[in-house]
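Q: Got a minute? One more chain.
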Amino acid sequence: MLDELLPELLQAIASLLDFTDRKTLRLVCKSLNDGMTLFVLETISINLNSCRTFDASILLLRALGAPQNNPGKFIKYLRVHSSFDPPYEKYRHPWHRMTRKRSRVVSRIEKLILKAIPSLISLQSI
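A: Always. Here it is, folded:
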């Protein structure tokens, strides 16, 4: 029933939900997935500071540069937390570990970002 609503009504309902509910609603069916994607992917953070999120962030950059199933058209706000910024105290260990491989990693990240930029057609802020 919810998947049969007009897109405008679905968007109005989605604007009242919190982020986790929007993500959950995407899993109900394909039409709700299509309707909720705009809200779920509106703001994306790429965190290269943390050892836990580094690989996922690289995968996201690759997805943004991919020709098929590219989520870039939905992203309005992109936040990039670079591991090469001056470290915050809690990020000191990953930062030192990454700076040893700096030239190789920075080159890889630069290539992925440059490849992803053309797909970010709705981008309003980085």
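A: The chain has six helices and two strands.
Q: Perfect, thanks.
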